[in-house]
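Title: [Solved] Tol-Pal system protein TolQ 3D structure

Original question kept below for reference.
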Amino acid sequence: MPSALALILAAAPVTELPPETAVAAVEAAASSGELNYLQLMLHASLPVQLIVLLMLAGSLLSWVIIFRKNRVFSQANQEADDFEDRFWSGADLTQLYRAATDRNRVVSGLEAIFEAGFREYARLRQKKGVDGRTQLEGAQRAMRATFAREVDRLEHNLELLANIGSTAPYVGLVGTVFGIMVTMHGLSTTESASIAAVAPGISEALFATAIGLFVAIPAVWAYNRFATRVERLSVRYETFAEEFSSILQRQSHVEE
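Solution (posted by the thread starter after getting help):
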């Protein structure tokens, strides 16, 4: 025989929850299972915390390099465009040289290559007994030296960016190994293993791997992009040096 309470509950009408109450209940249930990355980091083992902090520092450094190098390359392209416009507009080489040697300006890129080559050419031309070939070779040596310095300036810190991008995934894997080791060690001290006992350690292990990829992907992408821009500017500088050498060669023949 059913009890009186069971009969009362069976006879009571079933009412549906209001839509707002149902949605709130679903959201509350979902929020209770959300992954809190800050709490995951704070409750991670000490080796994993140190590794994550190291990778975050590397990420910050890589982004600083990315923003600085992007500004450097943008400025280098703009300066190259401006100087080529002035150079090929038919301006006098002596006037361009005086503008390049102005103490109130810091020249770089194409203008620095031009300034070094024309300075050496003018110096050798003032000497007696120096033929046109020697003058041209001296100007070419000066331009090659300046070209090497300019390319080295463009490549500055790119090696560090490449190192961060190539090593960050492996550092993240080290954090993953430590997280799994801590989890396995914790299971060895308990009588029964369950998903609830394993999940925190596995989560922090995978979190370290994700941080490593988060650090590596932008660094590798930026390095490849900047390396391509260095190559393009190098070709541009080298082409200008050859064209300017041809102009100096014609000028030395005319003076002879």
